[in-house]
C-alpha cells in the first residue's frame, strides 16, 4: 500500500471560515485531538499574524505530540525586505516548529497585480526565503499558491517557480487550487505533467468553490500526489477547503492507499462532531460519511430494501467511519419503517400493525403542526412509548409563568414559576435565571430533584429555534430543538408552539422525560 | 455548442431530504419557478405514492409550462403483476404527463436480494413496462438504478438491462449512482464504455455520499452524457443528490456546453434561495456559486489582493450566477477591510484611519462578547454609522417587560410592555402576541407607527438562536439573528445576551433601526 500523508489545516485555513473564531484553547484542544487520530501534519497557524497565533505556538511547545508534526505557516517575504530581517520569516522562526510551510506566488497575474514586482524578483524571493529557513534548521514545504490557474495561463513560469523552491531545498511542493475552480480532469492531467517534470514529493491543496474539492484531491493522489491538505468538515473561506472527512475514507477504503489507520477512521464521526462543537458550528447533517443523515434512510422502498441487505443502499458500512444507520420516520414512511424503528429500540410491535398505524397517524398529525421527528429522535421515542407501552408519565406541569423585565439602566431579571405534579405530589417552585429557559430549567429542577436525583448529571448543550413559515401569514409558529447530554450520551427533543417560551418548555420537558426513561431502561438492563 | 439537458428532481428525489416536506402548493410554486428558469425537465413526483403526489399532478395539468416538460416518476411493476393491471403503471398513466421516467434494477444483487426474482424476469419486467407505456403514447426515460455498482459486479447484466430498455423504446437511459459512492475516474470510464456499446442518449444521476456528485456528473457529461439529473441545493436523501447549482454554471462557463441560458444562470442565486425558503431549509451559506459566503472574503491578505484585482481570488465573476462579492469584517480583519467595507457603503473614511481603527476595536470587543457581524451586516452598518456618522438614534427603549403564562388547561398568554422615547416624546404601550417576540414586535409598532409609517411594510421573516458555549460553565449566552424584509430587500441583525428575550429584543430593535436608516438613505438618493 502506498503511503499518503494527511496535512490538516483546520486551525489555519479552516479558521478563515465565516463564523469560526478559535480561541488559543480551542486550537490546543483540536491539535491534541488530531494528534490522537494520527494526522501526519497539523498546520497550527500563521505566527505573527495576531497575538493569538503566537500564543498558540508558545503553548504548543509544552505539548508532546505522539503522532503529528506541527507546522507553522507563512509566506515569502514582503517585497524589498531582507530575509534575515523580514517579519514574516522572523515569526516563522519564533514559532520554533521543525516544519514550516510557506506559500509563494506561481501565477504571474498575482506577481504583477498583487505583489507588484517583477517575475524574476518573485522567483528570487521564493529561493532566498526557503534557503534561509533551511539554513536555520527548518524542514520546508512550499505551497505553490494558485498553481492550477497559473499553469493554465503561464505554465512555464508556474513550473519555474516550483523548480526554484525545489532547488532551494523545499522537500514537498504543494500544488494549490487556491480559487477552488479547477476541474477534476484538469487537476489529474496537470499533476501528472508536473510529476513527470519535477522530481520531488507533491502535495495537493484544493478549495471547494466548484464543489469538487474532494474529487480533485482524490484525482491528484491518483495522479501521484503523496500529501493531501484539507480541513475537517471542509471548513475554510468562501465555500471551504477540501474535506478530509470525505477524502481519507475514500483513499483507504476505495483506492487502497495507506492513509491513517482503520482505527483512526472509526473515530471520524466523533472527531468531526468534536471539531464542529469546538468551532461552535452546527454539524452538517448531510455531510458525507460522518453526517447524521449520511446513512439515514427515509424513502419507504429504500428502508424496505435496507432491511433485506444493507449493501443495497449504502456505499460503505457506516461502522467503518464510526457512524450508524438511521431509519427516519416521517409522513412519507410506511408502516414498515415504524416497525423497523421499534425493532431498533428492541420493542416487538411487528405483531401488532394497528399500533404501528396509530403511531404513524400521530406522527403525521404532529408533523402537520410543524413537529419534525427526524431531527428529534428522543421526542419520537417518547411518542412511541405513549402509544404502545404503558405510558411513562413521570410528572406533569400544571402551571407555568415566566416574567422578563428590562429596566432603563439595562438591568434584566428573569423569573420562572412552575407547579409540578409528581404522581400526586405537588411542588410549586420559583427560580431566577440568566434567561427564561435557564429560569424554567432551574425551577423544574427545584421541583424534580428530590424525586429524580440523576437530573444532576444532565445538562442542556444546545438549542435551535426555527420560525415556521405559515402560509396564512399570521404570527409564525416556532420549532425549538433542544439538545441535552449526560455522562453517557446526548439526545435531541422538539417542541412546537406559537410561543417561543412554550415551545422551549415542551422541548425541555421532553428532554427531562427522555432522561428518566433512558435511565430506567438502563437500570432494567443491568 | 453541444446541448446538455437539465432534468430537475428537486420535487421528487429532493423531497427525500431529511427535514423537507413539500405541500402541494410548495411543489407548484417550485415547478413554476423552474419553468421560468428554463429547466428542460421537471420530475414532479411519484404518482400513486401518496394522495399529495396525485393532487400535484392534477393541479399541474392546469398550468401551462412555457419551457419545461413535466415528468412523472415510477418503477417497473411489482413482481408477478400484469402491466395492464399494475398500480404503479396505472398511477403513471393517471398523471397524464407526456414524459414518464421509470427506474429498473440493473444490479443483479438488487434483483436477487430485494425483488427476489430471477435475472430474466427482471429484464422482462423492464421491457414489458416500457413497451406498455409507449403503447399508451408516453415518451419514456429509463433510470438504470445502481448502474455503476451493478457494472462493477456484473457488467454484462447491467448493460443487458439497458439494452432491453432501449429495444422497448426508452429514448434516454440514465445511468444512476444510486448509492453515491462511485469515484470520478470510474464514472468517466464506465460512461465512455457504455457510450461505445449502446446507441442511445445517456443521462447521469448521481448522489453525494462520497462528496463527489458534482464532479461525477461533470465527468459523465465530458464522457458523453447529454442529460444531467439533480436537485437544487443538492437536496436529497442521506448526503443529497448532485447539486444543479454547481453543475450548470461549470458546464456552461468552464466547459462551454449549451446548458440553460446565461440569463437563467444569472437567476441562480435567487432561485437557490427561493427553493430553500419554500423547502423551509436554512440556506447553505458556503454553497458553491450561490451561497452567501461563496464570494465572501475574510483573510486580510485576500481582501487586499481582491481590491487590486478580483480575479485573484474568484474562480468566476459572482455576477454570472447573480451573487455578489462580500468583504467580511471580523477580528482577523485589518484596517483595510473596514475601509473597503465603508467604501462599499459609499462612505469615504479612508482619509481618517482613526475611525477605521475605532470601528475595528469595537467589532473585536463585541465579537469577544459573542456577536458575529459576518452574519448580520445590518447590525455592523448601524455600528459603523454610530462611529463615523452623526448618530442616527431614531428611538430608545426605556423599559421592557414580557410575561408568559401557561395554565393547567394549556392556554397560554404573552404580553409585552414597552416605554419608548422618540426624540423626547414618550409612548408607553402594551400588546399581546402569539409569543413574546411577536408581543414585543406589536408593542414596539404600536409605539412607533405614528412616527414611522413605513414600518408597516416590514416584517420579520426568520430568526435563529444559538447557545454560545461558555467555557466557564455558567448559564450560556445566546445569540439571536433576526431576518427582516420589506418590499425591496432583506437584512439580518444580531443580538447577544444571557437572556433570549433580551437578545431577541436587541436584534429586533436593530432591524427596525436599520429599516429607518435604509429608508432615509434611499430617500436622500432620490
TrEMBL record, chains A, B:
It catalyses: pyruvate + acetyl-CoA + H2O = (3R)-citramalate + CoA + H(+). Pathway: Amino-acid biosynthesis; L-isoleucine biosynthesis; 2-oxobutanoate from pyruvate: step 1/3. It holds the Pfam family HMGL-like. Its EC number is 2.3.3.21. It is an enzyme of class 2 (transferase). Keywords: Amino-acid biosynthesis, Branched-chain amino acid biosynthesis, Isoleucine biosynthesis, Transferase. It comes from the Bacteria. One of its GO terms (biological process) is L-leucine biosynthetic process. GO terms for molecular function: (R)-citramalate synthase activity; 2-isopropylmalate synthase activity. SMART domains: LeuA_dimer. Residues 4-269 form the Pyruvate carboxyltransferase domain. Belongs to the alpha-IPM synthase/homocitrate synthase family. This is Citramalate synthase. It comes from Candidatus Omnitrophus magneticus.
Amino acid at each position: 500500500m502506498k503511503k499518503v500523508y494527511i496535512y490538516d489545516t483546520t486551525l489555519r485555513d479552516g479558521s478563515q471560515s465565516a463564523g469560526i473564531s478559535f480561541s488559543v484553547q480551542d486550537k490546543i484542544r483540536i491539535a491534541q485531538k488530531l494528534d490522537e487520530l494520527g494526522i501526519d501534519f497539523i498546520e497550527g497557524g500563521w505566527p505573527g499574524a495576531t497575538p493569538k497565533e503566537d500564543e498558540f505556538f508558545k503553548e504548543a511547545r509544552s505539548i508532546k505530540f505522539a503522532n503529528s508534526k506541527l507546522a507553522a505557516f507563512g509566506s515569502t517575504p514582503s517585497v524589498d525586505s531582507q530575509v534575515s530581517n523580514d517579519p514574516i520569516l522572523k515569526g516563522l522562526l519564533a514559532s520554533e516548529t521543525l516544519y514550516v510551510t510557506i506559500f509563494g506566488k506561481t501565477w504571474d497575474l498575482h506577481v504583477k497585480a498583487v505583489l507588484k514586482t517583477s517575475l524574476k524578483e518573485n522567483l528570487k524571493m521564493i529561493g532566498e526565503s526557503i534557503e534561509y529557513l533551511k539554513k536555520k534548521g527548518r524542514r520546508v514545504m512550499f505551497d505553490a499558491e494558485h498553481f492550477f490557474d497559473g499553469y493554465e495561463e503561464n505554465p512555464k513560469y508556474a513550473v519555474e517557480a516550483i523548480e526554484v523552491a525545489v532547488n532551494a531545498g523545499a522537500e514537498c511542493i504543494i500544488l494549490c487550487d487556491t480559487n477552488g475552480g479547477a476541474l477534476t480532469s484538469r487537476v489529474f492531467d496537470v499533476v501528472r505533467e508536473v510529476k513527470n517534470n519535477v522530481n520531488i514529493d507533491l502535495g495537493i491543496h484544493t478549495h471547494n468553490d466548484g464543489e469538487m474539492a474532494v474529487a480533485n484531491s482524490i484525482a491528484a493522489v491518483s495522479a501521484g500526489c503523496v500529501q493531501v491538505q484539507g480541513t475537517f468538515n471542509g471548513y475554510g473561506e468562501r465555500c471551504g477547503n477540501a474535506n478530509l472527512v470525505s477524502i481519507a475514507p475514500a483513499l483507504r477504503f476505495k483506492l487502497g492507499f495507506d492513509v491513517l489507520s482503520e482505527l483512526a477512521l472509526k473515530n471520524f464521526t466523533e472527531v468531526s462532531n468534536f471539531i464542529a462543537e469546538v468551532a461552535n458550528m452546527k454539524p452538517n447533517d448531510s455531510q458525507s460519511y460522518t453526517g447524521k443523515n449520511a446513512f439515514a434512510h427515509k424513502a419507504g422502498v429504500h428502508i424496505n430494501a435496507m432491511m433485506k441487505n444493507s449493501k443495497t443502499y449504502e456505499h460503505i458500512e457506516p461502522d467503518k467511519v464510526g457512524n450508524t444507520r438511521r431509519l427516519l420516520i416521517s409522513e412519507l414512511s410506511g408502516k414498515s419503517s415504524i416497525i423497523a424503528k421499534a425493532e431498533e429500540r428492541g420493542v416487538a410491535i411487528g405483531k401488532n400493525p394497528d399500533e404501528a398505524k396509530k403511531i404513524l397517524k400521530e406522527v403525521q398529525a404532529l408533523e402537520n403542526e410543524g413537529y419534525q421527528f427526524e431531527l428529534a429522535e428522543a421526542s419520537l421515542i417518547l411518542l412511541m412509548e405513549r402509544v404502545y407501552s404503558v405510558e411513562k408519565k413521570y410528572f406533569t406541569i400544571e402551571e407555568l409563568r415566566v416574567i422578563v423585565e428590562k429596566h432603563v439602566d439595562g438591568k434584566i431579571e428573569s423569573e420562572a414559576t412552575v407547579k409540578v405534579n409528581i404522581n400526586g405530589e405537588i411542588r410549586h417552585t420559583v427560580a431566577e435565571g440568566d434567561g427564561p429557559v435557564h429560569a424554567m430549567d432551574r425551577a423544574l429542577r427545584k421541583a424534580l430533584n428530590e424525586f429524580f436525583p440523576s437530573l444532576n448529571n444532565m445538562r442542556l448543550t444546545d438549542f435551535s429555534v426555527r420560525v415556521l413559515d405559515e402560509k396564512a401569514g399570521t404570527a409564525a409558529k416556532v420549532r425549538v430543538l433542544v439538545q441535552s447530554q449526560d455522562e453517557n450520551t446526548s439526545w435531541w427533543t422538539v417542541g412546537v408552539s406559537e410561543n417561543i417560551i412554550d415551545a422551549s418548555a415542551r422541548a425541555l420537558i421532553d428532554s427531562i422525560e427522555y432522561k428518566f426513561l433512558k435511565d430506567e431502561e438502563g437500570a432494567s438492563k443491568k
